[in-house]
Amino acid sequence: MDKNKLSFQMNVEDFLPADESEKQSLVVMRESVGFWKDGMRRLKKNKIAMVSLIVVLVIFVLSFVIPTVYPYKYEQQIKTSVNLAPMQYSETELAQIEAGEKVFPHILGTDNLGRDYAVRVMMGSRVSLLVGLVASAIILLIGSLYGSISGFFGGWVDMVMMRIVDIIYTVPDVLMAAVLNYPLKDLSQKPGFEWIGVIGVNLISIFLVFALLYWVGMARIVRSQIMILKEQEYVTAARALGASSGRIIRKHLLTNCIGTLIVTTTLQIPSSIFTESFLSFLGLGVNAPMPSLGSLASAAINGLQSYPHRLFAPAIMISVIILSFNLLGDGLRDAFDPKMKN
Fold first, then answer.
1. Alpha carbons 242 and 181: distance in angstroms, whole number
2. What pTM, to 2 d.p., does this model score?
């Protein structure tokens, strides 16, 4: 239908229903994804985070798999192979090689007691990783529970609980770890508490320090998230339906904080590992002969000029572990934090 260009009359054809081809051209198809799938897809695009994840997996293999098949044990003393340099054989081992026997090389040499240093570094990494993971789990459990209760109830409950947090911030962790050793030693000698001596008094004291002191940061983060989320409509609906406070916190609030909890826990792992290494360096770590990266570095200080590799090996391992977990935590934050989405 032709229409005069100068006429103000509307064209009827512009208001005809669109056909199927026109409808399909306007539809923008996008795959429906959930929270976890969307976060993992964003994480895979972060190359630095993926490289850090691969490094973390390699460290776990070196710490938990390789020592089980390694020809030397971390406590095994070879009296004829004392203070060997990396890839060096003792005279006894050279004689065995000349006789046709196969002798596995000491990749990082041996220490002053003839123990293979490579397997001790791997076992030290295992101890540090276990302490970091267990301590982060303890911090997550206590901090999320404490922070959610404080943020949900608010008022005088929140004020009292946060003042307790402020007081705990002032307690020195090193002093607390040293003080806990003495009652734990006495307790380990009583019937029924022998497991304390098996695990290690110093190691138990480290876990207690984390449980008593290091959850306060997690509690503050969770509290801030809960105070925002408790004003949402779904919380009001849950209250109207008669849900208890515990169920609202457990089912509605903490589940919506899961992204923040994952990121914060991941970033807490390197902090826990560093704290454990620091305490072990001061002699408050695991009991001998079980090694830790901090205790290995502490023992290597005296022979730094003669055997510098004994200090560099655990120090580099600590640095790589902490850097990898920090970069991975940053990647998880970018992937799972809704505020970071473009």
1. 48
2. 0.79
Is residue 304 classed as helix, strand or coil in its secondary structure?
A: coil
pLDDT tens digit at each of 342 positions of the chain: 555 566 666 666 666 777 777 666 666 555 666 667 777 888 888 899 999 999 999 999 999 999 999 998 888 888 888 888 888 888 888 888 888 888 888 888 888 888 899 999 999 898 888 888 888 888 889 999 999 999 888 889 889 999 999 898 888 877 777 777 767 766 667 777 666 665 666 777 778 888 888 888 889 989 988 888 888 888 888 888 888 888 888 888 888 888 788 888 888 888 888 888 888 887 777 777 778 888 888 888 877 788 888 889 999 999 999 999 989 888 888 887 655 555
Judged by DSSP in three states, 289 sits in coil
- Nearest CA to 126 out of 286, 12, 241 is that of 286
User: Cα(284)–Cα(188) distance, rounded to whole angstroms?
Assistant: 17
Distance CA 330, CA 228 (A): 23
For residues 243, 248, 250 and 252, what is the CA-based torsion angle, rounded to 10 degrees?
120
Angle, helices 216-229 vs 117-153, to 10°: value is 40
Q: Where is 275: in which H helix or E strand? A: helix 258-281
Backbone angles phi and psi of 110, in degrees to 5:
-130, 165
- Distance (Å) of CA 71 to CA 60, 68, 74, 268: 19, 9, 10, 34
- Conformation bin of residue 128: beta by default, left when phi > 0, alpha when psi is -120 to 50: alpha
Beta-carbon contacts of residue 164 (< 8 Å; ≥ 6 apart) = none
DSSP code string of 20-85: HHHHHHH--------HHHHHHHHHHH-HHHHHHHHHHHHHHHHHHTHHHH-SS-TT---TTS-SPP
Instruction: Compute and round to an integer the Cα radius of gyration of the chain.
Output: 29
